[in-house]
Specification:
Number of helices of chain B: 14
Largest sheet of chain A: none
Distance between the termini of chain A: 31 Å
Largest interface: A-B, 103 and 98 residues
CATH architecture of the largest domain in chain A: Orthogonal Bundle
CATH architecture of the largest domain in chain B: Orthogonal Bundle
Oligomer: heterodimer
Number of strands of chain A: 0
Number of strands of chain B: 0
Order of helices and strands of chain B: HHHHHHHHHHHHHH
Number of domains of chain B: 2
CATH topology of the largest domain in chain B: MetI-like fold
Order of helices and strands of chain A: HHHHHHHHHHHHHHH
Structural class of chain B: mainly alpha
CATH topology of the largest domain in chain A: MetI-like fold
Strand content of chain A: under 5%
Largest sheet of chain B: none
CATH class of the largest domain in chain A: Mainly Alpha
Shape of chain A: globular
Distance between the termini of chain B: 41 Å
CATH superfamily of the largest domain in chain B: MetI-like
């Protein structure tokens, strides 16, 4: 009620901008608490406690970088990082390529565009748990794809990615791409729709082929869309957890362990909180490394956020 | 270039532009249809597997339609499947998920819409700073904040309860929803807001009488975003709840990946489909709005 008094007296000016508006501040308390206590406070707390020797309960017994040394000496962590690297690079490249190709196909003024788009996007509505379990079944060596192809007469056919330590990450990749490419396709399609028709006319006049026009003209024009997609894909990759738990459980052995799973295992199963905190701080660092160049590219040049 | 061998009979005759166009179309539609098969395959396999009996599954053909349709696996998945010692099926997880979903949606959307409204119409000193922190927070890996939230929930006595998980969903849904509402309210002409202020309306009056009715479309987008997001959550469910309050995704994973007993693949697939049903129905029912929701969430986030 206090806020309502001012503009009544001077409706022509806009003085309320600088005025203290109590009600808006009260209404923003949940947001302020979330931002300060959970996001800033929680992150700072975890980073701080990653320098302690906490095991079952958080303790302030400072051990310096011990947890980090132990982390980088741990085979399991190294495997996790490598796995995420393989998965991440493949996923980034393939998601962008498939997403863009599908979007470009849909943008060719084709029939049944809505139907195709619906088909490509529906897996995105499903959870990683459902995705992982569905693909676990399809890739089941005894009853799934492999046995079907063998049943067709190709007796030596072998396609058993999720039970082979060397290829298990690709088994996850098949499922991950199935779930996630639809989203990138949608974003790319929105980007393509934003491109002026005249560009195409100009390319046709100049006699440039369709594929070449995409590569030489359209893709460079869509740089912001690609960067946004990359950031989205990358932040999704770092979070990779549910899919692994559902599809492989981290196995066979440790062959499909990922950092996010390492954190959860150490915090909530192995009761080694310090390790969990150190590992999650490393995850935070990787996000920061990705985000800073992006934020610089995105917001560095202009003032508006 | 690639497909010159496809139709050698026609040779280099006929009107050229049309031919190359249709050849391109063959590649185009061929690609799209092949990719569609890859996308539809898992859904098809899940459906046919869930309708088969176990003897038929052991015979092998995972792609074959069921010779004898049975709904037994669906009933078993819903009412009898075991997780640990409990054998009351996925129905419990479904109930938990609904009890988590509804308050989470109301609370998160309610708070976020007020945030967005305050941020676009009632800016105060520092409001943009909090908003920026919120948006940056959306990129912080959840793992970094998991344990501090465990402590917070223990302090307020909500650890392991549905209320605790509702709070967690409200917190982590806030960045994206606030952004969604802020952008929407910012697009409403400011004259409207000013006129209401001239008439003496206050913060809540303008929110409930002017902004809320105008923002109904964006509320629908937010609901779609939250229903799929919360229903599909696994991480928070597994950490902040206990077996009695596990949401459906967690229970599903426990049923399917349990090491005890013989694997009943048909029951597993029925359970998987049951869990995927809610977001799938939302997706197919909402159509363009779903796309709008993720586009709003993705492109600007």
């Amino acid at each position: 009620m206090t806020v309502a008094s001012d503009p009544q007296t001077q409706p022509a000016k806009r003085p309320h901008r600088l005025f203290k508006n109590l009600m808006a501040k009260l209404a923003s308390i949940p947001m302020i608490l979330t931002a300060l206590v959970v996001f800033v406070g929680g992150t700072a707390w975890t980073v701080t406690y990653s320098f302690t020797g906490s095991r079952m309960l958080p303790k302030t017994k400072w051990v310096g970088f011990d947890q980090y040394e132990r982390l980088w000496e741990s085979d399991r962590w190294i495997i996790s990082i490598k796995n995420l690297g393989i998965y991440g690079i493949c996923s980034m490249i393939l998601t962008l390529v498939i997403g863009f190709t599908l979007a470009a196909c849909l943008d060719r003024k084709i029939r049944f565009e809505a139907a195709f788009r619906t088909i490509f996007l529906y897996p995105f509505a499903l959870s990683f748990v459902v995705t992982g379990l569905a693909w676990q079944w399809i890739l089941n060596p005894d009853f799934g794809l492999q046995s079907v192809v063998r049943g067709w007469g190709w007796e030596t056919f072998s396609f058993n990615p999720i039970n082979d330590p060397d290829t298990v990450m690709f088994g996850l990749l098949i499922a991950g791409l199935w779930q996630g490419t639809g989203l990138i396709m949608c974003i790319m399609l929105a980007g393509l729709r934003g491109i002026d028709e005249d560009i195409w006319k100009a390319a046709r006049v100049d006699g440039i082929g369709t594929v070449k026009t995409y590569v030489v003209v359209i893709i460079p024009m869509m740089r912001p869309v690609f960067i946004t997609s990359l950031v989205l894909i990358a932040s999704g990759i770092i979070k990779l957890y549910d899919l692994v738990v559902a599809q492989t459980g981290g196995g066979p052995g440790l062959a499909s362990e990922v950092p996010a799973k390492y954190v959860i295992e150490f915090m909530f199963r192995a009761q080694n909180l310090g390790q969990g905190f150190a590992a999650s701080t490393m995850m935070l660092c990787s996000v920061v490394i990705i985000l800073i160049p992006w934020a610089y590219l995105e917001f560095g040049g202009r003032k508006r956020g | 270039m690639v497909d010159t061998a496809i139709n050698p009979a026609s040779g280099p005759r006929g009107p050229k532009p049309k031919k190359s166009f249709s050849r391109g179309n063959i590649i185009l539609y061929g690609t799209l249809i092949m990719v569609s098969v890859y996308y539809l395959l898992p859904l098809y396999v899940m459906v046919v597997t869930s309708l088969k009996g176990m003897p038929e599954i052991r015979m092998g053909n995972v792609f074959g339609p069921p010779m004898e349709i049975t709904f037994e696996p669906w009933i078993k998945a819903w009412a009898e499947a075991c997780t640990g010692i409990n054998c009351d099926g996925l129905s419990r997880g479904f109930g938990n998920s609904v009890r988590i979903l509804i308050p989470s949606i109301l609370l998160s959307i309610g708070i976020a819409s007020i945030n967005g409204y305050a941020l676009s119409n009632w800016k105060f000193k520092g409001s943009e700073v909090f908003f920026t922190i919120l948006i940056i927070g959306a990129f912080i890996p959840y793992q970094t904040m998991l344990y501090p939230i465990v402590i917070l929930l223990r302090e307020v006595g909500l650890m392991g309860s549905i209320g605790g998980l509702v709070l967690v969903h409200t917190i982590f849904g806030m960045p994206i929803l606030t952004l969604l509402f802020r952008n929407y309210f910012a697009s409403i002409p400011e004259e409207l807001f000013k006129a209401a202020r001239v008439d003496g309306a206050g913060f809540w009056q303008i929110y409930f009488q002017i902004m809320l009715p105008m923002a109904l479309p964006i509320f629908v987008v937010a609901i779609i975003l939250q229903v799929t997001g919360i229903w599909n959550d696994f991480l928070f469910g597994v950490i902040y709840t206990k077996p009695a309050t596990y949401p459906m995704t967690v229970q599903l994973n426990n049923i399917v990946n349990s090491v005890q007993g013989i694997k009943e693949y048909n029951v597993n697939m029925a359970a998987t489909l049951l869990t995927g049903m809610v977001p799938l129905v939302i997706y197919f029912a909402s159509g363009k709005l779903f796309v709008r929701g993720i586009a709003a969430g993705a492109v600007k986030g």
